[in-house]
Design a protein that fits this description.
heterodimer; A: two-stranded antiparallel ribbon; 15 helices; globular; B: 16-stranded antiparallel sheet; 3-stranded mixed sheet
Chain lengths: ~450, ~500
Amino acid sequence: MNKRTDRSIRSRFSKTLVLAGIAGVTASGCEVTNPGPIQDEFLAQPASQQGLVNGGVRRLAELLTYGSYTHAILARELFPGGQTGFMGHDPITQSGHILPGSFSNRWNDGVQARFITETAIKRFTEVDAPSNMLYQAYLWNAFAYRTMGEWWCDAVLGPTDPDDTTPGSYEQGSTGNFNRAIDSFTAALGFASTPEETHAARGGRAAAHAWMGDWSAAASDAATVPDDFVFWINYDDELQPYYNTIFEANARQPAGSYSVIYTFVEEYYTETGDPRTPWFEDANIPYATASLDTYGQVEWKNQAKYNSRNDDQRIVSGWEMRLLEAEAALNAGNWQAAMTIINRVRTRNISETTGEPLDPWVAMSMEEAWTFLKRERYIELWLEGRRLGDERRWAATNTPGGLDTPDWESTAFAPGSRTNMFTRNPRSYCFDIPESERERNPNVPPIS
Amino acid sequence: MGTYTLPVTSAINSNFSWGGQAIGDSQVRLRLLGEDFPGAAEPTVSSAAIKVAEEDREKVWNAGFFFQNVFDISNKYFVTGGIRVDGNSAFGSGFGLQVYPKVSGTWVISDEDFWDPGYGAIKLRAAYGQSGRAPGAFDAVRTWNPSGYAGTPAFTPDNLGNPDLGPEVTREWEFGFDASWLDDRLSATFTYFDQRTSDALMFVSSIPSQGFTSSQLQNVGTVDNSGIELQLDATLFQSSNFGVDAGLGVSTTNSEVVSLCTGETEPSEIVLARDPAAECIAPFWDLNGRIIEGHALPVEVGRRVINRDEIADPIFEDNPDTPAAPGRTGENVVIGPQLPTHIITPTLSLRFPNNILLSARGEYQGGHVAYINEISISRSVRSPLCFPWYVSPKTSIELKSETPAIWRERCTPGFARDYWFDSDYFKLRQVSLTVPVDAVFPETVSNATFTATLSNFMDWYREIPWYDPESLGNSPALDDGIGNQTERVPSPVTFRMSVRVTF
């Protein structure tokens, strides 16, 4: 065999080897595992468990912080200053109306908070995770359902198994959300190991029971929560998605989007000095940023309940529980007992004006007692994203008593105002299921 | 890769090629950011008070092999057949290998005995082939994003995943000719193409309530694309001192979403994107537009006023697929294609004594629509566009009673959405003058030319009132997409002068 032939054979052999290698790689499907995004299969590992729960809490925080500042406009806890775009709202939302099918971002936050925590529940259960992990997963899942129930007019209820891809079913009203919230709060209680953990779950469940009209269960749960207990959703200045947005929208960085002018607390705080509804003026900054359609520049009177991006927001408190007990008493027909509780909530507060405890409310009838209950909830839960749901709940059950919601429709705000933006569209009391869900989910009807 | 040439007969040669390739694409991206540097030192990321580091690693393997044979018959007919087999690590786990065949033929008809040389030199060609486009590295798998929450680790849903994800396959027929006449003073190249893309890869929005709110890449259906490409070049005048050359390029593209059903099935029952058994999906958003069966890929949808010039409140065009809802009347009406359907590029070149050359190139794009976001209206601010219709433009947004319907819609805050315009436009892309300047350089310079070029200095728009449709902003153009103009800076007019010297 001469050298030339030998080289030729080796060349052919090496070519055949290379081709065989390529064919082998091709036939193997070129399997590669990439780093970076976390693949589903790794979620249940002990090192991942807290991260998975935190993901659910983050989405709930995003829902609550952005939802609450929208809610404050709709509930007339704040008056719009005209800011659109960054830290503002479009003119229609500023007028108190939610366009059907809008606010998909808030919906996405809510459904992801639910989905992530349901994924945690399933994965943790499969690997027999520590009870604290399961407690957290159930608890935050319950708060996600409760918030969706309070804020959305209707519900989409899918399988609670995150691996079941059956599209969720449509349900008018919020009953399904609250039932699931109650189930998850109850499951969380099964894993609670400290009094604080129990209070958070029972307090959350009490509010859900109230929505379901089960006042006996609501009062029973509420009674177990001490006055000074508070459970928060954590906001943080690390990233804008979970800043305290009510603060940020008025922090003059650069937005000062809203004012308490024309709201109930504008006069109320001036008259009483109630520390629960603080606001302030700044002579150097007379107006909110931007300008309000049909009105002009709005005097800026800024809320002072939240004073930094890090200020957390209450989602359960002992004093909220007392007001639930009072409402249970009113539903039971005992308005005198209700007033006793309402005034205990009220008079614990020392007026920033007089330095004395706030004056108690004096009711002479059931209707007046309801009015004071509604007013005290407005004050106690001011800017906590609860008012709009309260109004919807009370309207659905035709409770007596007046609301302190300002009548902006018939207010002549300023000389020369041409038309009233608040009369253009009806006021909304809840978010609508967004178009993105209606479009892809065949069980949800189109906008109507 | 190897080739083997075999003379089959004295008139037929066969050239067989085979080969393979395995490409591993491994990308590592590191981003380092530092903020708040101490004053004295030369700043480095390490010296910053706040440091942020990001790392992405991604690897994709694509391996395949091919066989191809070219038959050369009498040096007049060329027939090529081939096949390629591909595997890709980004395919879903339920997806195997992909086979792409191709065949083409060329006939130099002007070499035939029956051809009169006076008809010019003409080569006819036809081809059929298939090609594929693979999904990205993570598209097939369900993933979670390590997003963090208040300084703690947190995972949020990222990609839904699709184990059946495979490549989209495009098969294309192509016919055409290359011709020249009059001693190559007139030449033409013409191609007609007809593409059908099956299992087209597009990002389809998931059902939000199922937890994954981002869009998932899916093999969604069938898309057709057809059109022509024509290039004509002519030397209109030629002498030793003067010359005039002209050219005209015409290309058209007509796309249609034939079906949003997987495979070759016809549109039938609309079921869900996420349902594994799904065959068809409802219209969705992708490619900065709306993907709808029976329409171009993609189309713009929105609201249209139909009684535009009437002195009355606006009436909106109905969308038969979307019943009108309070506050949302006339939504999602198909407005038109988002991308140009025809492009025309004329060129002209004038040669003067001493080889001074003056040339110009223009471009016309048309057949598409554009939305101009009149952001001041959406923010309740007075707009100059509406000044003719305001009762008192300096102080009020109240409209005159004689305002036509279209401007009532366009000038009402929170209401204005019919800012759709026919997007046809023409731009004189470039005019350049080239002058040989050898004489001003020493003899060691063999060649020197001076060129002055003026770009984008003249344009014409059919309807668009104030935006350049090619204008860019701070972010890349594709962030907002063609046809969705917001706050952008138009592409600049430029004047450049250069001297090219060859030694």
